[in-house]
Specification:
- It is a single chain.
- Helix 5 packs antiparallel against helix 6 and helix 5 runs antiparallel to helix 10.
- 60% of the residues lie in helices and 9% in strands.
- The chain has 2 domains: 366 residues, Outer membrane efflux proteins (OEP), CATH 1.20.1600.10; 74 residues, Outer membrane efflux proteins (OEP) (Single Sheet), CATH 2.20.200.10.
- Strands 1, 2, 3, 4 and 5 form a 5-stranded antiparallel sheet that branches.
- The protein starts with 8 loop residues before the first helix and ends in a 13-residue tail after the last helix.
- The longest helix is centred in the middle third of the chain and has 67 residues.
- The chain is built from 10 helices and 5 strands.
- It is α+β, with helices and mostly antiparallel strands.
Amino acid sequence: MVFGERRSGYNRLCIRPAAALGFAALLLGGCTVGPKYVRPTANVPPQYKEAGNWMPAQPSDEISKGAWWRIYGDSQLDALEQQVTVSNETLKAAQAQFLEARAAVRVARSPFFPVVTGGASASRTRTSQNKPSVTAAETNNDLQLPIDVSYEPDVWGRVRRSVEAARSEAQATAADLASTDLSLHAELALDYFQLRGLDSEQQLLNSTVTAYERALELTSSRYQGGIASAVDVAQAQTQLETTRAQAEDVGVQRAAFEHAIAVLIGKTSYEFTQQPLPLAYNPPPIPVGLPSELLERRPDVAAAERRVEEANAGIGLARTAYFPSISISGAGGFESARIGNLLEGPSGFWSLAGSAAELIFDGGQRRGVTEEARAAYDRFVDNYRQTTLTAFQEVEDNLAALRILESEMKTQDAAVAAAQHSLDLSNSRYKGGVANYLEVTTAQSAALGNERAAVDVRTRRLVASVLLIKALGGGWSASQIPAI
């Protein structure tokens, strides 16, 4: 109705339905208050600094399928990794956390629908005959079948923002699950390669002990023949026992890695034993891709971005408190004194009501909640950008490690060959009586040290390759995040 204007009956008939439809559309559709989400920007380099000319391989089918460890062609590693997928307790906990977050989305969606409650009641009462205005005592039955309905239309988007926040958190949790899965499989591969590196070192020390035992026998024979001195025998004995001690010490580290693998595959240390198996291969080629692709390949980056959207929804949710809350309620059912006519038409009853309430004064609570939500959003944006910087750093670190270690491996192999040649010469000089045994022990120490260093470099190369695959996301893609 417009002030002072008269409306014809035709106009009133047209305007009232239109107003009713508009009000219904407002209640059902409403509007969503708060800022629209825009993915935050991140500093992405045009290329990897440490890649240089080292741009290996095309994407591997195994990596793209997530079973990235199969590029090493190690059946024992593959069997252990599959047990991680099935039996690791940390991974199971992450899966349960995702299911919990997904269920929270269903809870957040529930206010889109009205709440309907039903019940039944029966009572029998008798009034007092001595009660004022009562002429005779009466006994009455009251049978009821009530149904109550309440509904709060999502006019300002409070429910929509709650669902948006819950969905983003569930998607972030799904990315967390993928990140946990990647970390656990990478941790197993790291432990496995380091254990096998220790097996190589153990094999080297055992063969060296055998060689030193023969050297001690030779020196003892020379001493008995008057060719060598007791000092030579003592030096040979010292070298032998020192190497034996080193061989035994390797067992301490190996046991720790074996126990760690047992936990990763969901077993006790008593249930798991890994047979010694020295390393026999080098890292395979690994597809690197472009830096811009990394933001879609790292689950931790995806999780950080999803939580930014969740925080953005939190701002909108805080803003809805500035608008009135509207609710609709209704009740209906049947009521009668006799069960025989309880469900007949005349026994029916109903009521319908609506209300709107606006908070007038809250002492700055709504403003504080809104400022808190905006600060949380800024914090999650900063966390997202820091996560992307860390991701690029990890890729660069391991690209550099692989590139440098490959060159170091060549140098170390040359050092091993030179040390072995020096040892052969020293043994020949000693047997010919030209050199004393100190020269032999010095050459032996140098040869063993260089061979152990070569084993260490080989192990570190495989470790760096695993860390690079992990830094690149292990074949994961943001497209794998469920829509929910």
